[in-house]
Amino acid sequence: MRYCAATVFTPVFATLLFTSFSNMPLRASAWEATRVLSAAGMTGEDMGFAVEMYFDQKTEKALRDLRKVLAEAGVKPVLDEIGDRPHISLAVFSQVDVDVLLEEMEGFARDTKPLPITLSAIGAFASTEAVLFLNPAITQDLMDVHWDFHQTLGDLKMHPHAYYQPDRWVPHSTIAQNVQEGMVGSAFDVLRKSFKPISGKLVEMGLVRFRPVESIGVYSLGGK
Questions:
Q1: Which residue of 84, 97, 121, 133 lies most exposed, with the fewest beta carbons within 10 A?
Q2: What are the Cα distances from residue 93, in Å, to 28, 73, 106, 208, 213?
Q3: Is the pTM of this model over 0.90?
Q4: Are 200 and 61 in contact (CB under 8 A)?
Q5: How many CA atoms lie within 13 Å of 102's alpha carbon, on the beta-carbon side?
Q6: Residue 180 in contact with residue 128, Cβ under 8 Å?
Q7: How far apart are alpha carbons 69 and 148 in whole angstroms?
Q8: Distance (Å) of CA 173 to CA 37, 96, 133, 224
Q9: What angle do CA 112, 115, 117 make, to 5 degrees?
């Protein structure tokens, strides 16, 4: 049984929406989960794999422009330095059979229509990685795609990290990672002042190896 969009968020995560906290230091979370969800498919490990969904060109540019705004404000552009493409991760693995997964992803992408999406809020993970991100408005279509993909992974006996699995997934698109100590609050304020909701579509899915980020395969949704 698929889950409904209203149940996506878990109380493990403190999402800070449009909040100025310029004087608030970022502390290490009590939950290991924040390391798993930190950013760009990263798990706190040196190596791994992530299945990602990519935006249309206009939306991707808007996200890159927000990263540029933060860089101009003095935030180190870690995501650009490691080759990260703006995305929403569906699953992250420590190890995976790449050939088998790519074959399944090609068919899954062909059978999945492009998804309308609106990035509507700013958030942060309370982790040592100092991550800022944008939340998409949760739609049933988005949650269904995530659910269906994880059913496919289950059929393949593939086991992604737990916090990307149904009922634990927190969909997000990372804007900044490893923000310098003492700059988290000011970076959040810069983002808050620059951000307006961004509407577009998810049009591709791909598999990457990290880090640095290396694209292994990319497939258009709907087979286009």
A1: 97
A2: 23, 33, 18, 10, 14
A3: no
A4: no
A5: 11
A6: no
A7: 36
A8: 11, 23, 5, 24
A9: 160
List domains and CATH numbers for the chain: 14-19+26-223 (3.90.1140.10)
Structure tokens at 209: 């190896």
d(CA 142, CA 214): 25
Task: For residues 171 and 97, give the distance between their C-alpha atoms in angstroms, rounded to a whole number.
Answer: 24
Q: What is the pLDDT of residues 13-57, one digit of tens each?
A: 334 443 333 333 433 333 344 444 443 444 445 689 999 999 999
Find how far residue 120's CA is from the centre of its chain: 14
Structure tokens at 35: 């390391």
Residue bearing tokens 């540019």: 61
Residue 124 · residue 16 · CB < 8 Å: yes
The DSSP code for 82 is T
Q: What's the sign of the alpha-carbon dihedral 206, 209, 214, 216?
A: negative
Residue count (the chain) = 224
